[in-house]
Amino acid sequence: MYTFHFFASGKTPDVSKVLPYIFLLLFCFLSSKKVFAQSDPAINGIVVMENGSPVEFASVALQDAEGKGIKGTLTDSLGRFSFPALQHGKYRVKISNMGYITHHTDIIQVTAQHRIVLLGKLKLMEDAQTLGSVNISVQKKVIEQSIDKMTINVENSILSEGNTALELLQRAPGVKVDDEGKISLKGRAGVNVMINGKLTYLSPAELSVLLKGTNSASVYKIEIMANPSAKYDAAGNAGIINIVMKKNQMKGMNGSVSVNGGAGRKARYGSGFSLNYKNAGFNVFGSYNYAYRGETEYLDFSRRFYTNGIVAGNYDRISNQHTETNEPLNTNNFRVGMDVDIDQKNIIGFLINGNIGKYLHDSKTSNILQNQTGVIQSEMATTNYDQQNWSNTTYNLNYLRKFKKEAQTLSADVDFASNSFTSKLNLDTYTAPNASAAVQTSNRKGYVPAKTNVYVAKVDYTDQLGKVIKIDGGLKSSFITSDNNLVYQNLTEGAWVYDPASSNYFKYEEQIHAAYLNLNREFKAFTIQLGLRGEYTHTLGNQVTTGSVIKRDYFQLFPNVALNKSAGENNQFQLAYSRRIQRPDYGDLNPFRVFRDPLLYYEGNPYLTPELTQNIVLSHIFKGKYTTSLNYSRTTDVITWVTGQIDNLNTTYERPQNLKSLVNYGISFTGQTNYFGWWTATNFANIYNNVYRGGEESGTFKNSQVSFTINTQNSFKLGGGYSAELNAYFNSKSVYGISTEKAYHAVSAAFQKNLLKDKGSIKLLVNDIFQSSQYKQFTRYQNIDMNSHVNVDGRRVMLSFSYRFGNPFNIKERKNGNDDIQNRIKGGG
Asked: Are 76 and 178 contained in the same domain?
């Protein structure tokens, strides 16, 4: 029998802090009876495209009869808008959205006899020019900002060609990816990454490999949600990044082919195709992309050791380590699916996503240990050959039920994901204790098979009660099993001997059962969304090697509140609060050691506990173009990779630990500007302060730093079928746990020429033009005095060609239900 308890820094939170949200939800539900009985004057409508698909986040302004703005709102994910609790009188409605002609309604009269005005579906026409028989449509902006998320339209960006999904994230506003692939958002770690609205359930290391192996040619868009609602999983303290893969929705037979090639320090190339056939009630689609990425990195570590074990005065000895890597990567991405409209109300779909690849880490490391006078005490040369193979395949069966009421939908998903990962490594070290001593040789090899299976079942329901209340709720269960058997062997007297001190067999099981309820109600002056999500978690970590078993069972409530208010036609405000969790993944919990060389290794920590975050954000959008956000968050038991050192062995290691807390607060600004008809830009700036505090395990400390990030994305229409993009970002000095990272920046440019009647295009990309994206970090704490410099293979030139066959225009994104349904039903995206 399981024991249910709240798990937060080992303490039970005050229930009185949660009850107000529950009572508020109940109050809103109970008050719905009054809503049905009343009929306050209101104007309601739905904004759609020419093909009937809803337009989300369009700007809708309520005006008086003379055209003076009264208030404004944004359409929801179904294209709906409402202006409730109006006075009797004459009104107009103006609807605008990027890429569409502004729509003005005729005068609308609200009277005692005509209190509720239903405008029905209001169709927006594309802002297009007709040149002969060629229809040239205005594309979406590369970056679009709404009140609750930022969307990066990857397929509209020239700079996306020839990149990996992880490299795309590096240029996303507010997103930071470090040299090890860890992702942070607005200065906060703990980002939950989804693909097509689904969690990957992979460790950070495996996720990094997966994103490196995902070709940008298969990515449609990236959605960044800093404060997601309760319908999303509570995991992800800093928010959610959803990577939506491409899927064609045009009727008939159509598709595309692409090829690219170029080089950084090593060659890169790739190719792919997509094919789609769709008629009135049937759609089958598929795509395949292959990519090869050659890469070389240079890593330098300098470690000073002190006799008394405290960083003060003169050091006793210094270790200088230099590594040069050769890291070729081969990836294969495929996607095949089928959708069937059983009738107008019932839709079923089946989808298979796959990613298969091979990654080789071949490095040579030199390590020289000197005393304070410069005399060499020992020299070490290490070769590290690590061949990694992985296979990730996800099977999805989905169903959508539409009811007679347009806003009412029911959807269901069943997923199975099989993830296998193997690592075969050889570590050979040659050591000369001093100039006159004989060279000593040590040989070690390891085999790491990892198998993770994920089972997920989910059901969601959306409905509207009366004119002003919208609800959605759902249930979700996930089951994860992971099996990791790390075997190290040492070469002793010509024979390979099992190393029990470094080997470890670790099995992990996790169950999460969740239920959520969202309620959205419109009042005269504002709209409120209340969400409550409950998650029960059961984990079982079994170190088979030592017989140690760690079991945890806990239940958590995660409230989410958002207040939206319009102030005239040009101003939108939102105040949002959420409580989120970041659970340690099995990779962090697994205590096995991974060696870079005999004096530097990484290991997991089976005693990690979940971290919890309280987050509050105040946002303002002006004229639908300029967004300003103030945010504050506090995370307890924050999971951070911390450096440790064994002085007498000259050895350094890193392991995840729970620090006491992280406080993050700051202000960000996003501006979308049309400087000229041919030059548009999205500019992002974020100033924030991170304050880390240590606990018992890591020692008492405070590490804080005011940091800032700047990102600018510029698009140019040069005429004659030519276009260009320029992206630049700057990340200032920042802190992570006990370490400090120095500033770095990058500038990238791309050019495109349309040809073959705009069905084809040639693109030239120059990434990180000045090779300025360099990761430099230093740590000064207790007995640790370390500097590191990772010189990544960032600068590269890529040339690509793509060709679309079938109808290349009017590619629409199909929307069904809310955003989550959009990413799942019909194969996602």
From this structure: no
Distance (Å, whole) CA 291 – CA 333 = 9
Which residue in 82, 88, 232, 211 sits closest to 148, CA to CA?
232
Token pair, residue 812, equals 């629409």
Which one of 127, 155, 178 terminates a domain? 127
Residue 48 is part of a domain; what is its CATH number? 2.60.40.10
Instruction: Name the DSSP letter for residue 139.
Output: P
Full DSSP string of 654-720: EEEEE-SEEEEEEEEEEEEEEEETTEEEEEEEEEEEEEEE--TTT-S-EEEEEEEEEEEEEEEEEET
**Same domain for 76 and 220?**
no
* Tens-digit pLDDT profile for residues 54-73: 787 788 888 888 888 888 88
The CATH number for 173's domain is 2.40.170.20
Sign of the CA dihedral 47, 467, 144, 214?
negative
Residue 97 lies in a domain: yes
What mean pLDDT value characterizes the chain?
83
The structure tokens listed for 149 are: 């998320």
Same domain flag for 197 and 122: no
β-bridge mates for residue 519, sequence order: 471, 530
365 and 497 fall within a common domain:
yes
For the stretch 20-38, pLDDT in tens is: 554 455 445 444 444 443 4
Percentage of residues in the chain with pLDDT exceeding 70? 87
| Domain containing residue 77 | 41-127
490 contact partners, CB below 8 Å, separation of at least 6: 442, 443, 444, 496, 497, 499
